[in-house]
Amino acid sequence: MNKKEKKALISIFSILIAAVLGYFGISFDGAGNGREDVSGRVTRVIDGDTYDLLLDDNRTVRIRMDGIDAPERGQPHSQMATDYLKKLTENQIISVSLKNKDRYGRIISFSYLADGRELGAEMIKAGYAWHYKQYNNDRQLARLENEAKAARRGLWQDNDPIAPWEWRRRQQ
Description:
By secondary structure, the chain is of the alpha+beta class. It has a single domain (29-171), classed as CATH 2.40.50.90. Helices cover 35% and strands 24% of the residues. The chain has helices at 3-23, 78-89, 119-125, 139-151, 164-171, and strands at residues 36-47, 50-55, 60-65, 68-69, 93-98, 100-101, 107-109, 111-113, 130-131. The chain has a seven-stranded mixed β-sheet with strand order 6-7-3-2-1-5-8. A two-stranded antiparallel sheet has the order 4-9. Helix 3 (119-125) packs parallel to helix 4 (139-151). The longest helix has 21 residues, at 3-23. It starts with a helix and ends with a helix.
């Protein structure tokens, strides 16, 4: 392959990458990381780990909190988890990094309150979510889950709570 063919191939490849990133709404920060840091107000809490965020530019994005999995609708403690997330986010500005989308089009992101607290960690600490170890290996989230279990907070009041991924599998 000559230089001209290599340049053409690199140009085509670059255009394809830009198109894919654009499709997912990903931009690059100065460090070269694909992400867009944004903030906004929660307009709707879907469940204990998902909410809609109205951004400053009037876009609404659905956020699926990274690192946690909360009880599914119909599962014990689902409504309490949803209500707790509503309480945490009511009249709050939430900051997120728009990075990846899941197969449902939701943005997977850590979510931060203005005081710096991370929403997923707060949900786990209160006992309303599991640390989603299959997709996240954060030691702090694992520690918070163990502390919530030991204190029997939230869903850990039950003798043998069913994890949401197990609940979903059983429902299929």
